[in-house]
Amino acid sequence: MISRMALALTNWTERWVPDAFVFALLGTFIVFVAGLTATPSTLAQVVDAWGRGFWELIPFTLQMSLVIITGHVLATSQPMGRVIRTVAAWPTTSKGAVALVTFFALASSWLNWGFSLVFSAVLAREVARRVEGVDYRALAAASFLGIGSVWAQGLSGSAALQMATAGALQPEIRDIVAANGIVPGGIIPFRDTIFLWQSLVSVVVEMIVVTTVMWLATPPAGRGKTARDLGIDLGEREIEPPKPVAHPVPGAWLEHSPLLTWLVVALGAGYLVRYFSQVAEPLNAINLNIVNLAFLLTGFLLHRTPARLMHAVQAATPAVWGVILQFPFYAGIAGIITATHLNDRLADLFVSVSNPTTFPPLVAIYSAVLGVFVPSGGSKWVIEAPYVMAAAHELKVHLGWVVASYDLGEALANLVQPFWMLPILGLFKLNARDVMGYTFVVFLVLTPVVLLLVTVLGATLSYPL
User: Fold this and answer.
1) Residue 457 CA neighbour count, 13 Å, CB half
2) Do residues 393 and 383 make contact, with C-beta atoms less than 8 angstroms apart?
3) Does residue 8 surpass a pLDDT of 80?
4) Are 156 and 71 in contact (CB under 8 A)?
5) CB neighbours of 196 closer than 8 A, spacing ≥ 6?
C-alpha cells in the first residue's frame, strides 16, 4: 500500500511540480510582494534590496560547486574502483546486498554528499552484477539514502558549513546571528553543530533505523525485479583502470606524470598541517575552504596524474549547473528578507506558535516542507536563517541545535523530492517512480524519529551555544 502511495505521489509531482528553478523565480516574486505589503519598505527600496543581494553569495556558490566536484573526483578514482569491487563481493543475499549499499551510502554521505551519490551508485550497480535475484530498484534507492538522512549532519552539511565559514552568508544575516555580540562575528563552529554529541547520536540512530528499514523492505530473491527483468544492461564497470598513454608528446609528458601531483599534494598537506597546528581548537577551524582543499588534494592523490584529475573534474562539472543558476536568485530573496526587515515579521510568527521545547521540531518540519519546493540545503538556509535564528534568540534556544534541527529536517525532503536523485537515476537507467516506493517508506519511518530526536536531545542543550 505504501509503495502504491509513493508511486502515485511521484506520478503527481512529475506531472504538476515544476523544476526547482521555477520555484526560485516564484519565491522571488512572493517575497518581493511580501516585502511591499508586510513592511514599510517602498517599491524602490525592495528593488534595491534584491539587486544588492543578488551577487552576495558568489563565494558560497563556488564553494558548494566544489563540494560536488571534489566528491565526484574522489568517487571515480581508480583506488575507489578497487574498494567498490571488494565491498560488492561481500553480500550473498538480496536483503544483505541492499542493507550493505544503504550503510555505505549513509556513512559516505557524512563525509561528502557529492562523493556519496557517485560512490554509492557505482557500488549498487556492481552489487547488482554479483548478487543473483536482488531487486535493482531497491539497490538504486539505497544508494541515495545518505542524501535523505545523515548528509546534512556531516562534513559537507550546507547550513553548518555556512555558519562556520566567514563570507558564506551576507553580513546582515551574520549580524542577526551575532545579536550584539552574543555570538562573536555570527560564526557558529562545527563544535556547536555537527560535532555536538547530540548530533553524533542522531547520525548513529538514523543509520540504524534506515538500514533496518531497507533490510525489511527488500523483497527476497525472485520476488523483486532484477536489472535483467527491467531490460537494463549493466554493461561494463563504471570505474575502469585508465588506458596508459604509450608515447606522450613532450608537451604532454607532465600531464601524464605523477611528479607535479606529489609536489602539489605535499604543498597542500604542509599548509593543512600548519593551519591546524596554529589554532587552539582544530574543530573550530574547519570550514568550507578547508574541507574542499582536503578533498581536492585527496582526489589529486588518488588520480595520480594531472590528466586523470582534469578528466574527472570535466566529468563532474555538468552536475553543478543548477547551483550556479539558482543560488543568485536565493541570495536576492535573502537580500529582500533582511533589508526590509521581513525577517522580524517571520520571526515573530515562529515565536507566537512555539516555545523553547517545540521550536526545534517546528524548524525541522518547516525545513522539510520548504525543502520539497527549494531542494537545496545551502540556498534554503540563506532564506530561512534570518528569521529562524532571530526567533531562536528570542526563545533562548541553543543556536547550534537549531542549525542541526534544520539539517535533520532538510534531509527528509530529499526522500519525497526527486531533484537530487536525477544525477544518479541516469546512471541506473531508471525513473524516479521506480525508486520512490522505497524512499517514501523510509520517509514515513524516519520523520517521527527525527522529530523525537530534535525534541529530546534539544532539551539537553542551553542557550546560546
Assistant:
1) 23
2) no
3) no
4) yes
5) 400, 401, 404, 461
